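Q: What does the predicted 3D structure of UspA domain-containing protein look like?
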Amino acid sequence: MKVMIGLDESEGSFYALNWALSNLLNDNINKEDATPNIVYLVHVNPPFQTYVYPAGPAVVYTTTTVLDSVKHAQEHISAAIFSRALHSCHQKRIKAETFAMRGDPKEMICQAAEQMHVDLLVVGSRGLGMLKRAFLGSVSDYCVHHAHCPVLIVKPPKELAKNHAQAQAQAQVQAQAQAREAA
C-alpha cells in the first residue's frame, strides 16, 4: 500500500504519523511474501511573501538577504520534522521517503498525493473550532474534499490537543514579549 502522511511541526501531525505506523503500516513487517508498504512523508513550507514597508516618503522592499534567511529557516524546520519522523519510521522498521515542498500546504499535499498515486492520505487534525476553521482554513478539511484518494484524519487525544493549545498560547506571549524588547 502507498501511504502519504502530511507533516508539520505540530504534535497532532506526529500523533497521526505514529498512529498510522502502528495501526496501518506494520501489519506486513514479518510476512515474507507481503508487498512492502511505501510511505511518503510530506512537509510543505508556505511560499515566500515579499513585503513592502512604507518608510516615510520612500518604500522599502524585502531584501534578498531576508528571503534567503527565511528559506534557510524553512529548510531547517523541514529537516527537523523529517529527522523526527524518520526516527519513528525506523523504530517501526518501516522505510519512508521524504518530500519537502513549497506552496499552499493543502493544495500541494493533494497534488502530491495525486501525482504519486497514493492509496491513502493520512493527515492530523489541529482540532480547530468551526469559527477558526472557517477563517483560517483547515488542511485536513480541504484534503477530504479535494484529494483523489481516501483521506484518513487522525484526531489527537484531548490531552494532546489541550497541551498544544497551551503551548501555542505560551509561544504567542513569548513572541510578543520579544517584540516589545526589540522595539
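A (community wiki): The C-alpha cells above were generated from the sequence. The chain has a mean pLDDT of 82. Strands lie at 2-7, 38-45, 52-55, 58-61, 96-102, 120-124, 151-154.
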